[in-house]
Specification:
This protein is mainly beta and 601 residues long. The chain is built from five helices and 38 strands.
């Protein structure tokens, strides 16, 4: 009967690209205009280490994952092959520039090839250093030690008889770190979503995930597009050298449950495609090797959005009546978004760090998050002559930037790390982004407010009007738009990241007259609709005289908040993801002596 017997029906769609006899268990340009010498802008005295593996190492991993020394890459040493989409057609990278190839190879540190692990998955570039994929492609594997990601090409790499690897115009990068949904279940294949952070930004054009609460994209009959390098036949192991695509109709939860029974988890999964015919003929479906790749739908504006991530299907993919199953992205965008908007001063641990300036010496310091405390301070040099310092990854390159305002001129600058041409090192560049902002009462860098994954900037003018400056992710901004008036009633307005778990950046503001604290939920819209009606989350919070919001300090995927008492004790308020008075968990003291600092960012 349909839905009975998981062992008869379910397999992970991404059986890996087998290597050496064993299959794995799971399948803008940067502006560089310098500030004038008269303003003597500060420059960080430290810089991030660029840790990308050598090109030769990346190519070795790709060759090992494919398990072949031939140029056509049709077989591995064991005779197995990487599988591809059934019933689709070939396409070009220009139609899906965000597509990524994920190659994994681990020789287990032995000369015995029988224990090697190698496989292939798909993925999507959702930011210059971020790849959205499936947890079953990530969980339990060390991608930083053994992985390589190829973007910018519709062709799989080929290796000739001399061992030379041709990426066909693609860019190979290493993986810095990995995140799998914390509730991923390998047995039920639930919560099957993950994000890889790359060592260096790639040139590929990103695609956005759909938004939280999206229902229109999942209406039965909606036309969706699948992309991948997955299996092309149920009866052979032939691969397609070229990226393939297929159009699949979205199916209702009732239809999916009718076939898969309790294996299909409503709300966490979506299925698509017409019922398989029982053979290749008449079947269009995802298959082994497509795992982690995107299911794409156009939104009401015509823009393409990822609504599903290839997760699982049936043995050989064409069992009569079967459908392809995907992780439902609208459910997971709140969990995945913080992994995309996670720039931090220590760069590589996924926890937001703190910038503070000593009031007397004007020395700036970096204090790296340890989760529920901060490490010893690290000097960033002289930060005198400025009256605002903020940190954010303005160009989404994975390296945290500094935004500061010069006291004497009101000019606002952006210090950002620029890789050298070899992408092995780099240096800081300073760019003037706004002039004459001396009368601005607030400057805030909350992250992405407009829903395009490009960090935006807010400012409050002397009359209390808040302005939104839509970021272009390169240090420039679109035309400003008024968010609303009356913002001078607050003596603190802070925000960096998502406080409510819906994948949108928010603000926290304290009213000067009462000390009451309000949440302004981001809506993903611009202008006066940028924030929903305010929600009071604290009353009479008068026992603090400084606040900061730098993002996810604890590393749990939720934005956190920092507050300092007049006596100098700094408290961490861990975010809960709730848009209520329970927005923060119980406060945690992270140290004393913080009264010495006058700037926070």
């Amino acid at each position: 009967m349909p839905g009975s017997g998981r062992h008869r029906r379910r397999i992970r769609v991404a059986l890996p690209f087998a290597a050496a006899g064993i299959a794995a268990a799971v399948t803008a340009a940067v502006m560089t205009t310098s500030a004038s010498a008269s303003t003597a802008p500060p420059t960080p005295t430290t810089k991030p280490a660029v840790t990308q593996p050598s090109q030769a190492t990346l190519e070795q991993r790709i060759a090992g994952a494919s398990g072949t020394g031939t140029s056509d890459q049709t077989t591995t040493s064991s005779g197995a092959v990487s599988p591809k989409i059934i019933g689709g057609s070939e396409t070009t990278i220009s139609s899906a520039p965000w597509m990524a190839q994920l190659w994994y190879y681990d020789d287990r540190g032995t000369s015995d090839t029988s224990d090697d692990i190698g496989f292939f998955c798909g993925g999507s570039v959702v930011s210059p250093t971020k790849i959205l994929t499936a947890s079953h492609c990530v969980k339990g594997f060390s991608w930083s030690k053994n992985g390589a990601v190829v973007t910018g090409t519709d062709q799989l790499p080929t290796t000739d008889s001399t061992g030379t690897t041709d990426l066909h115009g693609g860019q190979a990068t290493g993986v810095l770190r990995q995140w799998s949904h914390p509730s991923y279940n390998a047995t039920t294949i639930d919560n099957d979503i993950a994000v890889l952070t790359l060592d260096v930004p790639v040139k590929a054009t990103p695609i956005r995930m759909t938004t939280s609460g999206d229902t229109a994209s999942y209406a039965a009959g909606t036309s969706a597009t699948l992309y991948g390098w997955g299996r092309t036949s149920s009866t052979s192991q032939d691969i397609s050298q070229t990226l393939k695509t297929a159009t699949l109709p979205i199916q209702s939860d009732t239809t999916c449950s009718g076939y898969y029974g309790t294996e299909f988890l409503k709300g966490h999964m979506v299925c698509a495609g017409n019922p398989a015919s029982g053979s290749d003929s008449g079947t269009t479906t995802a298959c082994n090797g497509d795992s982690g790749g995107p299911l794409v739908v156009k939104d009401s504006s015509g823009a393409k959005r990822i609504v599903g991530v290839v997760s699982w299907g049936v043995q050989d993919c064409v069992t009569k009546g079967a459908y392809s199953v995907f992780s439902k992205v609208t459910t997971y965008v709140g969990a995945a978004y913080p992994q995309i908007d996670d720039g931090n001063l220590s760069y590589y641990d996924g926890k937001a760090d703190l910038f503070v300036r000593n009031a007397s010496t004007k020395t700036g310091y970096e204090k790296d998050s340890k989760g529920t405390s901060f490490g010893s301070r690290i000097s960033l040099g002289d930060w005198g002559g400025v009256n605002t310092v903020l940190t954010t990854d303005l160009n989404r390159d994975g390296y945290q930037d500094f935004i500061y305002r010069v006291s004497s001129t009101g000019d606002v600058y952006w210090d950002h790390f620029v890789l050298n041409s070899a992408r092995t090192d780099g240096s800081w560049a300073s760019t003037k982004i706004f002039g004459g902002w001396g009368t601005r009462k607030r400057i805030i860098v909350p992250g992405d407010l407009t829903g395009d994954y490009k960090p935006d900037l807010l400012s409050v003018d002397s009359g209390g009007t808040m302005w939104l400056y839509p970021g272009n992710a390169n240090g420039t901004f679109g035309s400003r738009v008024s968010v609303g008036t009356g913002w001078l009633q607050y003596n603190s307005v802070r925000g960096h990241g998502d406080f409510t778990g819906d994948g949108r950046a928010d603000l926290i503001a304290r009213q000067a007259s009462t000390g009451d604290v309000y949440l302004y939920k981001g809506t993903g819209k611009s202008g006066s609709g940028a924030f929903a009606s305010r929600i009071k989350v604290r009353s009479a919070w008068t026992g603090y005289n400084a606040f900061d919001a730098v993002g996810d300090v604890t590393g749990d995927g939720k934005a956190d908040f920092l507050a300092r008492t007049p006596g100098g004790t700094l408290y961490l308020y861990p975010g809960t993801g709730k848009a209520t008075s329970e927005i923060f968990a119980s406060r945690i003291s992270v140290g004393t002596g913080f009264q010495q600092y006058d700037l926070w960012g």
